[in-house]
Automatic annotation (TrEMBL):
This is Uncharacterized protein. It is a multi-pass membrane protein. PANTHER family: O-ANTIGEN TRANSPORTER-RELATED, PST FAMILY PREDICTED COLANIC ACID TRANSPORTER. Its main location: membrane. The keyword tRNA-binding does not apply.
Length: 424
């Protein structure tokens, strides 16, 4: 078991996983300072309008390009040659940008038709809609570096984007206030993409449609992106329901802050999966390799989770005091959310991605949608009776249930996946 753990960590280091780890932490720090700078330079009321508009757009960004960036990473990983990977990239770039522009036009049209619902945020909603193609471009550039096993450059792209963002937000917010902030959010991913796309060394003059492109290629990307949107909504629905059912903005604030640490912990598994996704996809037909990886991953994250659980229980009050003395009263809810985060670290983070790797992104979508429905049903009873503790219980239950379902679904479908491959 120890040797297996050493192999897992060694592979993680060899694939420059530590570069992604450090880049993720640095990106979060820079993101925090970007938000802080914007708050210092822009009136909070005006800033709130932009944030509200960008929150709407942020739910649409995952389906930019109709999710073709998701197709790129899976089908690109399954392609043996760099030539094919580059052909897929060019196809995704072309079709994805067209699809993204169509989404922008739809948002503009809807904004103009229902402008009374967006109040004075309509101008920002229209401007920020152009972030859909720019973020799509940035995403496929990052994916292509992962496909080339250049995780160190991928990490550099991530950090460069956040550095550019903080510079642009500072300059444009100081000069043009909230309008400058909105523009910075749009052009930062574009400038980052322009800086790094040349280094991919792709010949854009050669236009050949790869044989791997079919209906399944589009279907996979679309469902993978819908799954991301549903999962993102699942993390936000608790706050929405607390505000709606309790009619208490203070409880909304409390829940948002006590969930910050548990949700932030999820980046640990995300770093591992981001580092290993391409490698796992390339080896998905090797049953022994996948079995060994799962075993080593589970051993590592059970150990990490025990440490997290014990430390959280021991220092819960100290951690909550950081937000304010009043937050200590919600220690039980905090610990319940920590338990939920552990469920994602051990199960959902791994098996959800393995389902995507075998082409079953639609299963992740169905699981997420089912979880949203269950969340609403359970919270309609638990929140009025138990307050935010009820919301924490619901989230934790669903984090574990969705992880367990993902686990069983993967093992069942993986057998069929391997049998189908042998028949081919």
């Amino acid at each position: 078991m120890i040797d297996g753990l050493k192999d897992l960590l060694s592979g993680f280091r060899n694939r420059n996983g530590m570069s992604i780890f450090y880049a993720t932490i640095l990106a979060r720090i820079l993101s925090f300072f970007t938000s802080w700078i914007a708050l210092q330079l822009i009136d909070s009321k005006d800033l709130g309008v932009v944030i509200y508009a960008f929150t709407i757009i942020s739910f649409i960004i995952p389906i930019s390009g109709l999710g073709l960036h998701q197709s790129l990473i899976r089908y690109g990983s399954l392609s043996a040659s760099d030539t094919t990977k580059n052909q897929i990239f060019k196809y995704v770039l072309n079709k994805g940008l067209i699809s993204s522009v169509v989404l922008v036009l739809l948002i503009i049209l809807i904004s103009l038709l229902f402008k009374s619902y967006f109040l004075n945020g309509i101008n920002y909603l229209i401007i920020l809609s152009f972030a859909i193609p720019t973020f799509f471009l940035l995403e496929i550039v990052k994916v292509q570096y992962r496909l080339k096993h250049q995780n160190k450059t991928f990490a550099l792209v991530e950090v460069s984007y956040n550095i550019l963002l903080i510079i642009l937000v500072t300059i444009l917010s100081y000069t043009y206030k909230e309008m400058g902030y909105a523009i910075a959010l749009v052009i930062a991913p574009l400038l980052t993409s322009v800086l790094f796309i040349k280094k991919l060394n792709i010949d854009f003059k050669i236009k050949v449609k790869p044989d791997i492109i079919n209906f399944g290629f589009w279907k996979y990307g679309f469902f993978a992106s819908l799954s991301n949107v549903a999962t993102k909504f699942l993390t936000a629905i608790d706050i929405i329901l607390i505000g709606y059912l309790l009619k208490n903005s203070e409880m909304v604030t409390v829940y948002k802050y006590i969930s910050l640490i548990p949700l932030s912990l999820l980046f640990i598994s995300q770093v591992f999966i981001t580092t290993d996704f391409v490698n796992l996809t390339e080896n998905i037909y090797n049953k022994n390799y996948i079995k060994k990886y799962i075993k080593n991953y589970m051993f590592l994250f059970v150990f990490i989770s025990i440490c997290i659980g014990f430390s959280s229980w021991l220092f819960a009050e100290d951690l909550l005091l950081f937000f304010g003395t009043e937050f200590v009263n919600y220690k039980a809810s905090f610990l319940v959310l920590i338990l939920g985060a552990i469920g994602i670290l051990i199960l959902r983070g791994l098996y959800g991605n393995l389902l995507s790797i075998i082409g079953k992104a639609n299963i992740n979508y169905y699981i997420a949608i089912s979880a949203i429905v269950l969340n609403v049903i359970l919270n309609y009873y638990l929140i009025p009776n138990y307050g935010i503790y009820g919301a924490a219980l619901t989230s934790t239950l669903l984090m574990w249930v969705t992880g367990i379902i993902s686990c069983f679904a993967f093992y069942k479908l993986y057998k069929k996946f391997l049998v189908h491959q042998k028949l081919e």
